[in-house]
Amino acid sequence: QYQRDRIELRLSGEVRENDYKDLVLAPGSLLDANRDYRDFTRTDFVARAAYAISPDIAVFTEASLIERDHDIAVSPDGFNLDSETTQVLVGVDFQLPQLVRGDFAVGYLNDKRSDPQFEDQDAFSLDANLDWLPTSLTTVRVGASRFTTNPGLATVPTSLNTEARVRIDHELKRNVLLFGRMSYGQEEFEEPTQAIDFDYKTRIAAIGATYKMNPHAHFDLALENRDRSSDRIVDEFDQNVISVGVR
Fold first, then answer.
1. Which of 108, 170, 177, 239 lies at a CB distance of 3.0 to 4.6 Å from 226, suitable for a disulfide?
2. Distance CA 81, CA 73 (A)
3. What's the confidence (pLDDT) of residue 33?
């Protein structure tokens, strides 16, 4: 990271190894327990340049490259799942006097698949985050993004994800914090074996609380509902989660 006067430059890189265990199947199952085809190395590079128009507003451009290199060249369904995603964004960082801060960027992404059976994908890209503090005790966070990810399927190298989310945090007392959040996401897939495209639509709603017993120990409670619908009925599910934790 380099910063001088109104200019800021950032360059970052990350390498992540993903290793999945095999399935434990019931006797007589016809499924394939081997999940080695899911193992892959993800390498990320991000370059960002920003220029401050004022102390509260800066414009920026960001370019990123994501490479996914699988350990096994061909999946059980006969596909090469390696891919390379390039993304370019142009946006603005801001902090307004009315207790509003955030960033908004739009751009373009190209998802290049190594297997010629898959078409390369060009799509509109988005990354937006907004924090609003209506009172000194309440924070409202709104966000939206569009990106690619590895769905873990033997027939699809990447999916195009679009997500919108909102979260509200409120300090009921100095040692009691409440939150509520909701998100909606869509995963779009292109699968040659299906001859048609399909998608997943996921809605997540949650409420929870944090109790600060003292400066060293916090207790958390959360209730979450996750619902996924799909063009393929076998991939649909509804899930309720209750979680209790201590930090």
1. 239
2. 8
3. 84
